[in-house]
């Protein structure tokens, strides 16, 4: 497979009145075309910092980053604008890029809305939708500009458990159908396994990658996060990742 993202020896220090704080220490990983990579680590381990560096919101202290494609960033909160309709929220990206009059861009958005069950809701407003539906809108908004790579920063953490399981499946299906390469940041072990083709485990700060696991649950074309959770080897991976994280790092 061809790597679409390569990160080598990434280090990030922050500076405050108290002095220098090393958050990331020699982080290295790669993301292959069409792969979902889960970055699993405890709170405060710098997972979001990695995403912010990949999108140039932060500059690394040292290290090399190679990105072969455009990036879409989906945040922890949906950040939908309550005064704009669902359609107007989804088209905000192409609006900023001055492409709202571009026929191809609008046809793409219409296809996404119709394919993923949002077309009938396009004239509604965010406060009229459930939490799970809002996250689906946020994902379609991120996909509206047709990025090659999706960065997902704990996008399910604000949802209740039952909704979270359903949205996991929704988002996974959309990602695979649209053939996107994804880096998912999470501190949820089950989510990392269910969603990811590969899981990279980060240590506490200063964060390093302790170990990387290739996830093979024996499911092929009909894989979904929900089905993954029912496979006997799922618990084996869970135990391995739990041991790697250590109980006191969750």
What does this protein structure show overall?
The protein has 250 residues and is α/β, with parallel strands linked by helices. The protein has 2 domains: 168 residues, 3-Layer(aba) Sandwich (Rossmann fold); 69 residues, no CATH class. The protein has 9 helices and 9 strands. The strands form 2 sheets. The chain has a 6-stranded mixed β-sheet with strand order 5-6-7-3-8-9, sandwiched between helices. It has a 3-stranded antiparallel β-sheet with strand order 2-1-4, covered by helices on one side. Helix 5 runs parallel beside helix 6 and helix 7 packs across helix 9. The chain is globular, with a radius of gyration of 18 Å. It starts with a strand and ends in a 5-residue tail after the last helix.
Record the SSE blueprint.
Layout: E1 3-16, E2 19-32, E3 36-40, H1 47-54, E4 62-67, E5 71-74, H2 86-90, H3 92-96, H4 103-115, H5 131-143, E6 149-153, H6 161-177, E7 181-186, H7 189-195, E8 198-202, E9 209-214, H8 225-228, H9 232-245
Parallel strand pairs: 3-7, 3-8, 5-6, 6-7
Antiparallel strand pairs: 1-2, 1-4, 8-9
Helix pairs in contact: 5-6, 7-9
Q: Can you summarize this structure?
A:
The chain is built from 9 helices and 9 strands.
The major β-sheet equals: 6 strands, mixed
CATH topology of the largest domain: Rossmann fold
Global Rg:
18 Å
CATH level-four homologous superfamily name of the largest domain: P-loop containing nucleotide triphosphate hydrolases
Element order: H for helix, E for strand: EEEHEEHHHHEHEHEEHH
Mean pLDDT across every amino acid position: 86
Q: How many structurally independent domains?
A: 2
